[in-house]
Amino acid sequence: MDKLVEKVILVGVETEENFSRFDGSMKELKNLTKTAQGEVVFSLTQKRPRVDRQTLVGKGKLEELVQLADAYEADIVIFNHEMTPRQNQLIAEAVGVKVIDRVQLILDIFAMRARSKEGKLQVELAQLNYLLPRLIGQGKQLSRLGGGIGTRGPGETKLESDRRHIRDKITAIKRELKEVTAHRERSRQKRQASDIFQIGLIGYTNAGKSTILNVLTTAGTYSEDQLFATLDPLTKKWQLPQGMIVTLTDTVGFIQDLPTQLIEAFQSTLEESRGMDLLLHVVDASAEDRLQHEQTVVELLNDLDLEQIPVLTVYNKSDQVDEDEFTPTLFPNVLISVKSTSGKDRLTKAVREKMMELLVPYEFDLPSDQGQQLSELTRYTLLLSENFEEDKNVYHVKGFAKKGSRWTRIPEE
Questions:
Q1: Per residue in 281-338, pLDDT tens?
Q2: Residue 64 and residue 37: Cα distance in Å, rounded?
Q3: Which of 46, 55, 99, 103 could connect to 259 by a Cys-Cys bridge, CB 3.0–4.6 Å?
Q4: How far apart are CA 251 and CA 263, in angstroms?
């Protein structure tokens, strides 16, 4: 049986602080709602110098919201602002239907999308951290969280036992995540200890990272035109035309006003990007709010201490823009449509050029009986030329390898 689509009313307040990105943010909220399988029946907006401390919107707008919820038979009202527990309670009491904010909506989508054990744990941790201060006035909804006979101490109220139940659960999840993270760290160190060049895909959600991963590695990952299609980092091998094998890691998409709870929860997922030799920042070249998207990602990279890693910006979806009039804002960059063959070739060439800047050149002679060495050079370094010199019975090899790798330590003959 199909899940019933919930009817949703969106509410946003345009203030002196957010006016420049307000329209884009409301559009994004609509897309987020669609991703969460909700149907937007009405968008209510209001201009104010700042949001109302009690109910975000003014008194008159709140009355209008009550009437709209009734007229449209709305199941849920979603505010484009993070609400305090008190605001949530006051608005829900007035409107009489479920009221959530942008953060809860994003958490809900993340819960739908998480596939791995780690992803699920991280989402649950973020949800519980968000729920903890919002327990007041949620009596009915909380009965399913446990509590009840056997959990209350002497004279302990329902609310206190619920709080304790959630705190215990948070502690348990953190403990479990530590183990999972340690395992991931071991795998990462193994990859770093090997001489393999590692590339990370980052970017605003829905920019086309998973599609790029699929095209380059035939990974078969989920890459729909949806927000947050990828949650769990996925690492695949990509063999360059010359034979060199590198790894490509897809990460969770960034978003404007990404809830801090999520940045904290997904720390280990985003940590994956720390060990990268190169980041490909994928940007949807056709997005109306392209500059805002770029800024969001650049700021988040700084917040996560990743700004020291070299970045190549990949402007994707060139088929949806006029290439002659397109003005890039981040450098170095390459403009492609990953779905076209020329796009794949153009991207491969740009990545290769960037790698040559980052790798260390080598040149030496390899005895002709070292066939194994030669095939390893082809796989793990960017081998530019191998010329067999008959008089010396050696291969004269030239190329680029990772700094500190054994290939750059071989002394010249």
A1: 999 999 988 998 899 889 888 877 788 999 999 999 999 999 899 999 999 999 999 8
A2: 25
A3: 103
A4: 13
| CA-wise closest residue to 252 among 102, 119, 80 | 119
Q: What is the DSSP string of 355-402?
A: HHHHSEEEEEEEETT-HHHHHHHHHHSEEEEEEEETTTTEEEEEEEE-
CA distance 85 to 90: 9
- 3-class secondary structure, 189: helix
Specify whether the CB–CB gap between 214 and 223 falls below 8 A.
yes
**CA–CA separation, 74 and 53 (whole Å):** 24
Are the C-beta atoms of 200 and 220 separated by less than 8 Å?
A: no
Structure tokens at 307: 């700004």
Q: What is the DSSP letter of 254?
A: B
Which residues face 163 on adjacent strands?
Answer: none
Contacts by residues 116-119 (CB-CB < 8 Å, ≥ 24 positions apart): 116/232, 117/180, 118/177, 118/180, 118/181, 118/184, 118/232, 118/268, 118/269, 119/231, 119/232, 119/269
Residue with tokens 């740009």: 350
CB 354 within 8 A of CB 332: yes
DSSP 8-state assignment for residue 245: E
Helix, strand, or coil (residue 66): helix
**DSSP conformation class of 38:** E
- Residue 359 DSSP code: S
Strands 38-47 and 197-203: unpaired
Q: What tens digit of pLDDT does each residue of 223-235 get?
A: 455 555 454 567 8
* Distance (Å) of CA 213 to CA 216, 220, 251, 293: 5, 8, 11, 20
Local structure of residue 398 (DSSP, 8 states): E
CA of residue 10 relative to chain centroid, distance: 24
Closest CA to 268 of 194, 168, 173, 204: 173
Tokens of 320: 């949806």
Q: d(Cα 74, Cα 71) in Å, to the nearest integer?
A: 8
CB 330 within 8 A of CB 313: yes
Report the alpha-carbon distance of residue 116 to residue 176 in Å, rounded. 13
Regarding pTM above 0.85, the answer is no
- State the residue for tokens 């509410």: 11
213 vs 208: CA distance, rounded Å? 9
Q: What angle do CA 366, 372, 376 make, to 5 degrees?
A: 85
- The one-character DSSP state at 330 is S
